[in-house]
């Protein structure tokens, strides 16, 4: 699981008040996410941990044109560990390290190599939140 | 309401300490005392049962005072209407199942015993002696015996810790069933988190004789709030490497799920770890089940 420490910057809700669109700031990276039933711990200004799964994290190079995916931030590949079908791509971003798991075919098609700059794409519906807490080992601050 | 305020000096493994508990419990709820051995959980149960006298304090159960050091009140165990179940069953070995249950009744009522035998699935075993029963069956007898006394407070002191995982799951269901069926007020001592989540309305964590945390299992054990819609507490049973990812088998009761983990997850997780498995409301897909009788040319069964 990937984890970025962040702060909630704004909260927008639908007419029924049960669906929320949150804007977050993770060390300068702006992220937006969707959420149902906002708990009181999550308010504007609250510090949070942003959680997202490696398998839901996409990578793009030379991306042009528009895309419906809400979140896009720059990162640098620090390592690639390939299996026969899947590859584990270690990345470094302004918000901290994260990992994307993509197919080996995608690594070849995008010609990914360590040291390269890429865009990380992340859907708003794939982000979870937790309150930051001392004992959590999820966010390993390097 | 059940109100407990007691103090007692105890001699622990690391020197003397004071058990000092101030605890309220809603009637008909199930409260779990969670803590390491030697923290005072069993002592507290024994004081409630009247098997041990607090140095000072007050115990009031639904308006009835069982103990009050300031007024010199201390009801003996037989006047307290408490049912107790221990880890080691504590059945009379020379009495049959039926005789064990009859013995527990203040007013002998064989019909009520038969009802209880039926309810707990022990009817076929009623003539057997405890030594010929499995651990799970013996604990079922102990539970039936405790409930036959129509207790105002049912005290369960790690009742399932000597049993295997499967039997434990079955008996957890049974405890929950009788707790609800007889509207009991139940206090359970346990250090199995899955059990705590499955059974308890609330949890009190005891450390060195003091309650350090109190709340719902979720509040007490997951000290961070997550935004996820679907979550359950479970145990990692195995982790295996598949290509360059990892697949973990995670079990909750009888259900098993497989979850993809990354190398970074695995650095921090091992089989046996208790975990929260969570997913956003957006992720799961929902597929309607085929109704089994809807085969072509087949009639629906009579309702």
Tell me what the structure shows.
The complex is a heterodimer of chains A (142) and B (303). By secondary structure, chain A is mostly beta strands. Chain A contains 1 helix and 10 strands; from the N terminus they run E-E-E-E-E-E-E-E-H-E-E. In chain A, the strands form 2 sheets. Chain A has a 5-stranded antiparallel beta sheet, with no helix packed on it. In chain A, strands 5-9-6-7-8 form a 5-stranded antiparallel beta sheet. The two termini of chain A are 15 Å apart. In chain A, 30% of the residues are buried. Chain B has 303 residues and is an alpha/beta fold. Chain B is 24% helix and 33% strand. Chain B is built from 8 helices and 15 strands. In chain B, the strands form 3 sheets. Chain B has a 6-stranded mixed beta sheet, with helices on both faces. In chain B, a hairpin with a 2-residue loop joins strand 10 and strand 11. Chain B is globular. Chains A and B meet through strand 3, strand 7 and strand 10 of A and helix 8 of B.
Rg of chain B: 23 Å
Biggest chain contact: A-B, 34 and 21 residues
CATH topology of the largest domain in chain B: Rossmann fold
Number of strands of chain A: 10
**How many strands, what sense, and barrel or not for the largest sheet of chain B?**
6 strands, mixed
CATH class of the largest domain in chain B: Alpha Beta
What level of helicity do the residues of chain B show?
10-25%
- Estimate percent helicity of chain A: under 10%
Distance between the termini of chain A: 15 Å
Short description:
Chain A has 142 residues and is mainly beta. Chain A has one helix at 104-109; strands at 2-13, 19-26, 29-36, 47-52, 57-60, 71-82, 86-93, 96-103, 117-122, 127-130. In chain B, β13 and β14 form a beta hairpin.
């Amino acid at each position: 699981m990937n984890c970025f420490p962040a702060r909630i910057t704004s909260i927008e809700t639908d007419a029924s008040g049960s669906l929320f669109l949150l804007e977050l700031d993770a060390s300068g990276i702006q992220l937006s996410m969707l959420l149902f039933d906002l708990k009181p711990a999550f308010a504007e200004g609250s510090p949070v941990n942003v959680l997202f799964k490696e398998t839901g994290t996409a990578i793009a190079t030379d991306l042009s044109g528009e895309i419906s995916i809400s979140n896009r931030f720059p990162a640098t590949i620090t390592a690639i560990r390939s299996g026969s079908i899947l590859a584990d791509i270690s990345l470094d971003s302004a918000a901290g390290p994260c990992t994307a798991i993509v197919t080996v075919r995608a690594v070849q098609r995008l010609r990914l190599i360590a040291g390269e700059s890429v865009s990380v794409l992340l859907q708003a519906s794939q982000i979870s939140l937790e309150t930051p807490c001392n004992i959590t080992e999820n966010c390993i601050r390097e | 309401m059940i109100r407990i305020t007691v103090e007692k000096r105890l001699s622990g493994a690391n020197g003397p300490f004071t058990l000092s508990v101030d605890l309220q419990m809603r009637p008909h709820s199930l409260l779990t005392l969670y803590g390491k051995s030697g923290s005072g959980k069993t002592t507290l149960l024994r004081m409630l049962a009247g098997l041990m006298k607090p140095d000072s304090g007050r115990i009031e159960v639904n308006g009835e005072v069982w103990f009050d050091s300031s007024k010199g009140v201390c009801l003996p165990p037989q006047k307290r209407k408490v049912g107790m179940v221990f880890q080691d069953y504590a059945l009379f070995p020379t009495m049959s199942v039926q005789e064990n249950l009859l013995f527990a009744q203040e007013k002998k009522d064989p019909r009520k015993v038969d009802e209880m035998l039926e309810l707990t699935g022990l009817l076929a075993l009623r003539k057997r002696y405890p030594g010929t029963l499995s651990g799970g069956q013996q604990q079922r007898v102990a539970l039936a015996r405790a409930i036959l006394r129509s207790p105002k407070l049912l005290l369960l002191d790690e009742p399932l810790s000597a049993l295997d995982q499967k039997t434990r799951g079955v008996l957890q269901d049974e405890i929950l069933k009788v707790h609800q069926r007889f509207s009991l007020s139940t206090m359970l001592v346990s250090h199995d988190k899955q059990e705590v989540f499955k059974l308890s309305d609330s949890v009190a964590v005891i450390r060195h004789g003091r309650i350090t945390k109190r709340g719902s299992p979720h509040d007490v054990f997951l000290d961070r709030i997550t935004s996820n819609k679907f979550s359950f507490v479970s145990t990692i049973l195995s982790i295996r490497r598949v290509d360059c990812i990892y697949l973990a088998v995670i079990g909750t009761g009888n259900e098993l799920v497989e979850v993809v983990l990354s190398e970074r997850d695995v650095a921090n997780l091992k089989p046996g770890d208790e975990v929260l498995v969570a997913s956003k409301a957006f992720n799961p897909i929902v597929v309607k089940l085929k109704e089994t009788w809807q085969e072509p040319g087949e009639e629906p069964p009579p309702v």
